[in-house]
Write a structure and sequence with these properties.
Length: 456
C-alpha cells in the first residue's frame, strides 16, 4: 500500500493545476474587463505626468529625466499591446459554443494567460509611475548654445498615426540597428500598402520618448520632393535657416554647403520616406547631407518598395516589411471596424474573418475596407461586401482609389517587360494553388516569356 500515498498526493496537485487552466478560459471576460480598467488607470496617470512635464518645460529651461522618458515609452508600448490583446480576447468571448464555452479552447486559454500576465505588467507600471521629480535643469552649456537638448521631444515632428498592430517587433528591430554604431544607413522595403510609412512614423515618434544621442530628426518624403530645391528647402526649414541667409545662397551648391555646414559636427537622423527609383547615395552629399559614419554617429533610415534600391543607397541593414499574419490582420480589421459594429449581429464576426482573409494581411486594404464597414450594421451589407471582394474587388469603395494604385506602382516598378508578363501569367493559376518552380519555368519557356540557353 506504499504506492497509495504518492498517488493521493498527486491527485490534489493535478486538480489545482486543472482548475488554474480552466480559469483562464472560464473567467476570460472578467479578466479582460480587469485589464481594460487597469489600462484606463495607467493612461489617465500617463496623461497627468505628461501635463506636469509640459508645465515644467514651459516654466524654465529644463529637460525630462531619463527615468520619466523611459517610463512614458513603456506605457506607450504596453498600451498598443493591451488594445490588440483586448480585441483578440473579445472575439473569443463572442464566439461561444452552446452559449458558454469559446469555440477554440486552446486559443482562449492562451489569450487568458496573456491577459493575466499583461494585467500584472500594467499594474506594476502604474506603481512605478510616481516620480519625485519629472524634469531637471539643463546643463549650462546647453542653455547658452541651444534652445533644446539632444533627444528632447520638441525636436521631433509629430504625424497622425494609423493603428500600428504588428509593428512592435519591427520597431524594436530598427531601434536596435539605430543603437548599433556600425550601422549608419537602414533600408525598410516592401510592397505598396504594407505599412512602411506607418513604421517610419512610429520610429520617428520613438525619438520623442526614448533616450537617444541625436541633435535633430529630419523627415523628408522623397517622392514629394523630387527636385533639389524642394528637398533642400524642407531640410533648411527643419534646421531653422533664416530666409535672409537662404536667399544669399544663389545656387544649389551654395545651399548644399550651408546645410552641410550646419549638419557637420552634429548627430542627426534623416528619415526618408517613399524613396523612388533614380535616387542614389551620391545624391545625398550633393544635397548637403553628410553620409553617416562611425565618426559622426549619424543615421539615415529610408523606406522603398524596391530591395534593389536598398543597394543603391548603401543600406548596411535591410529590413523587409511584410503583410500581417491572420491573427494580427483580424485584430487590425476589428479595431478599425469597432466593437459596436462587430457586436451588432452574431454573424458579423464570422463574416469579418472572411473579409479579413480576402485582404491577405495587407494593412492598407484592411484599413480601407475596415473604414467602409465601420458604418455597416446590416447582415445583408456584410454579405454583399464579402461577395464583392470575392468577385469584383476593384468595385469595393476605396479599393480602386487607395489600395490598387500602390500595388500597380509595384507592378510597374518590376525591372523588365518580361518580369511584368511573367507576373500576369501567374494570375491564371487558381487561388492558394501550389506552384512548382520548375514547372513554372517550363511553362514560361513554352509561352515564349523566357528565352536563352540557361533560363534557370
Amino acid at each position: 500500500m506504499d504506492f497509495v500515498s504518492p498517488v493521493l498526493d498527486i491527485v490534489p496537485r493535478l486538480w489545482d493545476f486543472g482548475v488554474k487552466h480552466v480559469a483562464h478560459v472560464k473567467h476570460l471576460g472578467e479578466r479582460l474587463e480587469e485589464l481594460r480598467t487597469a489600462m484606463d488607470d495607467l493612461s489617465d496617470h500617463r496623461d497627468d505626468v505628461k501635463e506636469r512635464v509640459e508645465m515644467g518645460l514651459r516654466s524654465q529651461p529644463e529637460m525630462v529625466t531619463k527615468r520619466v522618458k523611459r517610463w512614458l515609452s513603456k506605457v506607450e508600448t504596453i498600451e498598443e499591446q493591451v488594445v490588440a490583446l483586448i480585441h483578440e480576447g473579445n472575439l473569443q468571448v463572442e464566439r461561444k459554443c452552446l452559449g458558454c464555452c469559446p469555440r477554440n479552447l486552446q486559443t482562449a486559454y492562451k489569450i487568458g494567460k496573456k491577459v493575466l500576465k499583461k494585467t500584472a505588467e500594467v499594474k506594476e507600471l502604474l506603481q512605478n509611475g510616481y516620480f519625485a521629480t519629472l524634469t531637471e535643469r539643463l546643463p549650462s552649456e546647453w542653455v547658452s548654445s541651444r534652445s533644446t537638448p539632444p533627444g528632447s521631444p520638441q525636436m521631433v515632428a509629430q504625424f497622425p498615426m494609423e493603428n500600428t498592430v504588428g509593428l512592435y517587433s519591427k520597431v524594436e528591430d530598427v531601434w536596435e540597428k539605430i543603437e548599433d554604431e556600425n550601422v549608419g544607413i537602414i533600408g525598410l522595403y516592401g510592397i505598396g500598402g504594407v505599412g512602411k510609412t506607418t513604421l517610419l512614423k512610429k520610429i520617428n515618434k520613438e525619438f520623442s520618448t526614448r533616450d537617444h544621442v541625436f541633435d535633430s530628426v529630419i523627415w523628408v518624403t522623397q517622392s514629394k520632393a523630387t527636385k533639389v530645391e524642394e528637398f533642400q528647402d524642407i531640410v533648411r526649414r527643419k534646421l531653422e535657416i533664416s530666409d535672409d541667409i537662404w536667399q544669399k545662397c544663389s545656387n544649389e551648391n551654395n545651399r548644399a554647403c550651408e546645410i552641410s555646414r550646419l549638419l557637420s559636427g552634429t548627430r542627426f537622423v534623416l528619415l526618408l520616406d517613399d524613396v523612388r527609383k533614380g535616387f542614389f547615395k551620391s545624391q545625398l552629399t550633393s544635397l548637403g547631407i553628410p553620409l553617416p559614419n562611425k565618426g559622426n554617429g549619424c543615421k539615415i533610415i529610408f523606406t522603398t518598395r524596391s530591395e534593389e534600391l536598398c543597394g543603391y543607397l548603401g543600406a548596411q541593414r535591410r529590413i523587409k516589411v511584410e503583410c500581417l499574419p491572420p491573427e494580427q490582420a483580424l485584430s487590425l480589421f476589428s479595431m478599425t471596424v469597432g466593437e459596436d459594429i462587430l457586436n451588432s449581429n452574431p454573424e458579423i464576426p464570422k463574416l469579418a474573418e472572411i473579409v479579413t482573409a480576402r485582404c491577405s494581411g495587407l494593412p492598407l486594404a484592411l484599413l480601407t475596407v475596415g473604414s467602409v464597414m465601420a458604418s455597416r450594421k446590416s447582415y445583408h451589407d456584410w454579405i454583399c461586401a464579402v461577395e464583392m471582394l470575392q468577385s469584383y474587388p476593384s468595385e469595393f469603395s476605396g479599393m480602386g482609389d487607395l489600395v490598387f494604385p500602390p500595388i500597380k506602382f509595384s507592378y510597374d516598378s518590376l525591372t523588365s517587360p518580361i518580369a511584368r508578363k511573367c507576373f500576369l501569367y501567374f494570375s491564371i493559376f487558381p487561388e492558394n494553388c501550389t506552384i512548382s518552380v520548375d514547372e513554372l519555368i517550363d511553362l514560361c519557356i513554352g509561352e515564349g516569356l523566357l528565352v536563352g540557353t540557361s533560363p534557370r
